[in-house]
Records
---
Amino acid sequence: MTEVAQKKVASALAPLQLSGEHHLCPGCGHPVAWRILLEAISELGLEQRAIGVVGHGCYTNIVQLADIDFLQCLHGRAPAVATGVKRVHPDAAVFTLQGDGDVASEGLAEVLHTAARAERITTIMLNNGVFGDTGGQMTAASVVGQRTKTSLDGRDAETHGHPVPVAELVAALAGSAYVARGSVNNAGSIAKSKRYLKRALELSAAGAGFTFVEILTMCPTGWFLPTAEGPGYLEGTFEQTYPLGVLKDGPR
Amino acid sequence: MTLTRGTVEIDTERCKGCELCIAACRPGVLVMSEETNHQGYRFPLLEPGCTACRACRDVCPDYCFEVFRFDQAMEV
Amino acid sequence: MPAQLLQGSDAVARSAIEAGCRFFAGYPMLPFTDLLEAMARLMPGAGGVCMNAETEIEAVNMALGAGAAGARAATGSCGQGIALMQEAIAEAALNEVPFVVFNMARGQQDYFQATRGGGWGDYRTICLAPKDVNEAVEHTQLLFHLADLYRAPVMMYGDYLIGHTYMSVDMQRRDYGPLPPKDWALDGRRGGTGASRQIWTWAMGKANDPGPGPDLHWQRIAAKFEDVARAEQRWESELCDDADTVVVSFGSAGPFVSQVVAELRADGLRVGAFRPVSLWPFPETALAEACASARQVLVFEVNAGQMIDDVRLSVGHRVPVRPLGRVSIDFSGMRQGEILTVPWIRERVRAAMNETVMG
């Protein structure tokens, strides 16, 4: 075959990714979220201003794969740590990367107080409704009906109560300037989530206030599902409890 | 022969066989292999008809795809 | 700079600012509250930040973040509040982030908490216990130096008397010598250069620059604390060379015991005083030497007996070690209670000396 004239339109890794090697499960949505986050930082030209504070979860691995100043902190405490970082470097683009266990369970006080204080940072919450890296237990964000290792017959409101809608709570606080919820279960939603990330990072770096992006991600292992059924389960189950879209853009 | 606008390079050894790319491929020209890679996973193979839309690359959690668009679409 | 008459909390806040502290975060809890209020008043004028944190857990993690970003940072609380901070103090010891914790304790009941820690993993915390406002001003600046020197969180064990008495203090900046630059501190500027930084208790490093990993990292930190234990022992010893009885006390109990020793010496009794200034590392060598000729060691502390464990570890079984204090909480719960008076201590030292058949 003669040499075909072609142009690369997409490379596997984002510019800030040092490696694509990771040990997250097949079909996990987190690595997709990692990449659009790092692409957003590059495309906003924030590489040499970005400081990330990362909680505990399957996503923690990003601190090894990304060429960004990262601090891996205690479970749930990222928004408080990021506050200290931001107050010392007001011109840095400070963000936290956490999971639903890190935010909705362990660190709910931290994220709400930080939002109320209008700290000029961005919190990104990857929400798959389970504690992934401890094997799939229920979190405060697990949806009603969701089977987990600690709700094998499905979360039921009577005994396990209801999921905490963190994005809605953050949006209700005057200190938050932008709140959006996306997902990574198909190419279209991935592109939209990346736009939400860029907007959120841009606004906090510009000092508009606290910004928050929740990204629903697949966890087939934690959902006891074949990998190919992850995207559909996310849409059919999670998106009913967590509607996608921009919840807040500007003062309210 | 099928009109093909581009192609992908697939790192079949890094693939963990999640098959998310199969459903994401708009022209439906990705199919899972029969043989397995060193990790024991089956992996995607590209058939003619790729439109270089990069959906496979975007959804892949293991970063297996590099996407190329031909200067000239051609029949393959 | 002329001496100033200042309340302890105010003096400590000014001394911290003099040492270059530009970030403070705290949550109210007496007797720490006065230090938080002083910082809220003074920090903005010094170009710094004082955060009125919504929980102690957030306060100490804010300080951790500020320290990780390269600032001289501090937090503080007492009792229950310090208990809430233990997780982050341990974390900072193991990810090597420096900051100062002002433990303005309620009496001396928190000696174990301050010296044994309640966090996780193999870590120690340098803890200095000033006897008065002047020494507190000194320790404040020394602690910021030690925190940066050893890249670890450190603690002052103060109390109501340190925070509330007034003293004439000399506020100028102390210089403890040069420190290496904080090139490990996060500022975002190395993103995308292939040399970005990472702060992580597991120290796994990055794909292009793998770290030692937890095993080697934590072994190195354990070795570091061994070095600190040898290098940073501080104490004050008074009239112990020929003493039959040595009275050991710490913090603001020290001046009371010194007065008792002076009065009993005037009566011809051979008694000495030893005061650990660093609660960790405990000055075991110096205490053993101070008690070389002693026939008994009395430990005066306002609690059910905590530092006495460290005294016994230091002097071994060579000489009897007996507690002198007890739990003693006054109505407000802030002060040391009724036993912290010269007459109360003096009579018990005298009684203990009479009981022991001398010579």
---
Amino acid sequence: MKTLCLFFLELRRLLQSRLAWLAAGLTVLSPAMGLFLYKPASASTMLSMYLANPAIAGGVAGGILFGLLTVFAFDRPARNRVDTLMDAVVSPLCMALIRLLALIAGALLVIGLTMLVWLPVSRWLTGTVFGAADYVLAYLLLMGLALPLGVLAAAAAYQFIRRADLSLAVFAAFAALSLTVWADNWQLCWLNPCVWALSDDFSNFRIFRSVGYMRLTWLAALSGVWTLSWLCVRQYGKGLLGSLLRSARRAYRPAIAFVLLACAGTAYAAQPFVDHSNLDEMAMSFYEIPYAEDVVCTGRTAQVFPDVNAGTVSGRASYQFQNSSGEEQVVAFGVTPGYVISDVQANGADVPFSVSDYQEYNEAMLEVAIPAEEQVELTMHYAGFPQENRMMSAMQGGAEISAEYLCLENAALSPRLMNVMPDEHRYPTTLEITLPASMTVIPFGSSDAQAVAEHEDGTKTWRYESNSTGGILYAGTYIREDIAVDGFTVAFYYGRKHQAVMEAAGAAEAVKSVVEYCTKHYGRLSFGSADKLKLIQSRVSGGGYAADGASLLDEADFTAENLSNADKGAGAGEVMIHELVHQWWGLGNMFDASDPGSAWSAEGLTVYTTYRIVKELYGEDYAQEHYVNQWQQAVDDYYLDFYVRNPDYLAALPEDKQLEITNNLTYVRQYCEMPLKILKAEALVGGEDAMDLILKGLFGREIDPMYPYLTYQEFLDACGLAEEDLNLV
Amino acid sequence: MQMELHDLCMAYPDGKQALQHLNLSLKAPSLTGLLGPNGAGKSTLMKLLVAALLPTGGSILVDGQPLAKSERLLKASLGYLPQDFGLFDELTVTQFLDYMAALKGLRNPKKAIQEAVQAVRLEEKSKSKIRTLSGGQRQRVGIAQALLGNPPLLILDEPTVGLDPEERIHFRNLFSRTAQERLVLLSTHIIEDVQSVCDQLVVINHGKVLFTGTPEQLIQTAVGHVGVFWERNSVQEQGSVREQDSVWEQGLHITARVNTSQGIRCRAVADKLPAYAKAEEPSLEDAYLYLISKEAAQ
């Protein structure tokens, strides 16, 4: 009872402190930094810019301010020499605990106040995409928990050191670590969580879960450290060690500290969000495993049951094999890390299986020995929380699974067959997925999903068929708009939350004009269902991609702000154009991707064509400024790059650093240097019309099925040019 | 309230032996004066009694319970004024006392604060910021916080330091009244503070108890050992005037030298008074000095 009274006393005293009010006031204002100065979330969605950045900035500033306030509050009795009077009345240990709790309570009050103050501002800035759940979770997780962590860290530093100046220095160093060295490590950046994007149109539970996990891990760790420091609170005239030994006599006290630290350590080591994939982007181990001899896959089915509340997936997959080898064969599957295979049966009998610890490209390898029988039906059950690729650990959120959105790719949908050849039907696949009735299921590709059953629990089962070992499936609260172009239909899917913005921006018209341009200049698409193309707005992912009969558009390019930005012209439409053009250059004509460092890829012609369309739509000046000039600038910088001029130094760098630099340089070569070369080729062959004819010829050329790729040499030959003719230096 | 000290020892980490085998019994109601020269171990003893330090040997019993087990009870019953303390300068007197009253968990803090402020005569300054107070006024705030809630045990380390003579008399009387129902332990090296009000005295030096008893008993120990003489007589007797104020030489310790029209009149204590000294009735100060000087000689 007295402890409770003391808590309220200390809280009241804190609330009477001018310094506390100063810290509180600055903390309440600090989200403004996220609008102008500190913008760690790089995506251009409205929630990234106007919710994530202010909340993270508020957390950084609030954490630091409350850390400083904590040192001041803990040092105050000693500084005023009142500690002798207070220690005679209340145990220093009790007082330290009360003081900590009062500071944390004060921090929580400030968070509440900040949320109230910024609610109308955020609502106004984010407009129609504002969501109460996003707002509350962003401010609680991205900002809120930083303050107690700052309090715990600073209090622990003071209790160990018992000198305000040194404690402040230690706390500052700890905060600086988070802001610098640990900034890209999602588990260590305790002050500034790794949040690169929040989705406007769909949910953000996955990234919030990840940040919450990181915060709770640190909360346990710092609580443990604080408890240890609490045992070092000086009492009975003893020093650090003497006080520690005295306080630790009650065994439960150090036990609590060690339990907290053990929890934090376990949580750190056993985090469920990110896998342990090989960081080498060139690794190809899973693609080099030998195919099972005389075994073909004659079909597969899967029933997938995502739990949209827990963010998990469970399922049953079945594979039909024809084993004509007369021997037992080992079949390999790619399994998404985080999934647990509970059982595997061959023709109804349990068979042994193993899942590798080694992971590559967000897959572990499941190996199953199938019996030496002619026909084998292999079934397996799997379930779990899909982990994201370690290489993208600072950009989590892609594995979102909620009642608003999900994206299951390849092994995340069902185990992906790795080493068995197809029969003549090319892996006939039937896939069923059960989801809330409000969600629309969109297989990425030419297949269409049909609702086959409705259930009493408000879910629907969808079924679709395809031919693949993996596949990608999107589902969400989508609006579908069918756009007809010359007998060709574009099924345009976008988030329900974004309907008003899309309609206002005339997105459907942009789609129409692009399809018209490409069909006119290059010809109709030859792949998939020739009369249909899906255009799907995805949750923010950092870019789009295209596949057989479908193209993906990142929601970040369709924000209200982007679409209404006069300086950018039709920026959102341009991304749409780019991704659509990939249906022609990327799918209609494939490019050999065996050398990922090559400048010649699907991007060169796609970027060039995008430029041409933009030039037609918005004029030469605009296209020159936003495309050619920017390519030229990037290429000029590229040729001046130290590592380009001195490749020996690049080779001397650590492998991960080399990869990072190489990837950046490759991006410039593919997205800027190659379009410039094509532009130079255009001038050399006689202008745009001549180049259009050449490209039309290349697009419609007869494709060699043994090597279906469009090569750079073919392009040069079609232009009648040699490689050196297109040198830019 | 009763406190018993058994074979109490305290050695600091630097090896300094602050207290050696102390045995004491303190029982309410009592105003016990703790006397001793600077560095005698008074403050260390006080800190041990308020559990600010842990003894390196022996034990302290509070109402029969070891202090380690009854620390919470002790803190709830204690009013403590340390020798060296500070105050929250940014608070007013009332705010500070309110904070301390809340720390003590007093049920009726307003009344307790009012009583304490009145007791230390700070009514006029009760709304003043502590930073504006004089040294004596800050000392009185310190005393007031100790008096808050009328604790059954009051431990005051040099409480009258910085107070003017009139205030000292006031506080002596205040402590005396307070001790009618409680146990008050008053540490000082100012004899006047304890002379008229303490019913028990404890004299310590070099960490050892030299005397425990009533002031009268202490005075009694000095009867026949206090004398006065003219300095010229002593010069004639000894042939020269020597530095004698603080040196126990030839068994004589001069405690006062007064210039008069007839010459310098000296007052001294000695185990055996010289012939030229005329025996005098000892005061408490004489007795204290006799005790200390005798211990020094040994």
